[in-house]
Amino acid sequence: MTQFGSRFSRRVSALFAGLVMGGLLVACTPTVQVAAPKEPITVNLNVKIQHEIYVKVDKDVDELFSEKGLF
Question: What is the pLDDT of residues 29-58, one digit of tens each?
Answer without folding.
Answer: 677 888 888 999 888 888 888 877 767 767
